User: Which sequence fits this backbone?
């Protein structure tokens, strides 16, 4: 009813009813029923178990990750090449562990590595000798000699005993001068691989472009003709 149609008697009646009619408190059970009947957002029943399962799977992965076997190449030569490249990368970042100078350090290096360099490339106008050191790769003692070229590339010459399973892939061999080393590429590095008697030899660097590879062939010849490794005992 609008204020224009309401009169004084209506206001008086309203006040009288509000003051004289009895009021009753709703039972507690009724209030509970009303609350329960009200629609409330509920979390899906499947969400809890799903979150718990995901957390369990993540915990198992984190626990098992350190003990999972690393993926390694099946080919024995590729396994050795991977180890050689890793050693070259370590020397590139942190340098030699026990740097020695040739030829002064040869007696100690022969004793520690079991590799005897009857003659060794000591550097020239293109490659400067940096250091030599013992290495332990694929469960074998070996010898690494590091050079640096005039453009700053680190070149590592690594010698290891050659196992019977060490067989180079014929299709990957490249004719260089009178030699035919095998060429391998791994993780942004290139490696020349060859055998001299009972030892396997590797020359590795990051010279991957075509122009760099031509110079790397020249480095191979320089090291190959001037170095004669053999098993010391």
Assistant:
């Amino acid at each position: 009813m609008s204020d224009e149609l309401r009169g004084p008697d209506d206001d008086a009646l309203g006040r009288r009813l509000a003051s004289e009619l009895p009021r009753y408190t709703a039972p507690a059970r009724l209030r509970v029923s009303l609350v329960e009947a009200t629609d409330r957002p509920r979390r899906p029943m499947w969400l809890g178990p799903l979150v718990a399962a995901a957390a369990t799977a993540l915990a198992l992965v984190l626990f098992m990750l350190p003990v999972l076997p690393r993926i390694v190449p099946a080919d024995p030569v590729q396994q050795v090449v991977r180890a050689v490249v890793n050693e070259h990368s370590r020397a590139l970042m942190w340098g030699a562990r026990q740097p020695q100078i040739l030829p002064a350090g040869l007696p100690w290096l022969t004793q520690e590595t079991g590799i005897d360099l009857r003659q060794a490339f000591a550097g020239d106008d293109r490659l400067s000798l940096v250091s030599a050191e013992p290495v332990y790769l694929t469960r074998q003692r070996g010898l690494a000699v590091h050079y640096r070229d005039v453009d700053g590339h680190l070149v590592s010459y690594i010698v290891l005993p050659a196992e019977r399973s060490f067989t180079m892939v014929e299709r990957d061999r490249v004719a260089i001068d009178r030699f035919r080393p095998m060429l391998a590429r791994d993780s942004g590095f290139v490696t020349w691989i060859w055998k001299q008697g009972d030892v396997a030899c590797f020359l590795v660097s990051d010279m991957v472009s075509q122009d760099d590879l031509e110079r790397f062939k020249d480095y191979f010849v320089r090291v190959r003709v001037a170095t004669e490794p053999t098993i010391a005992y």
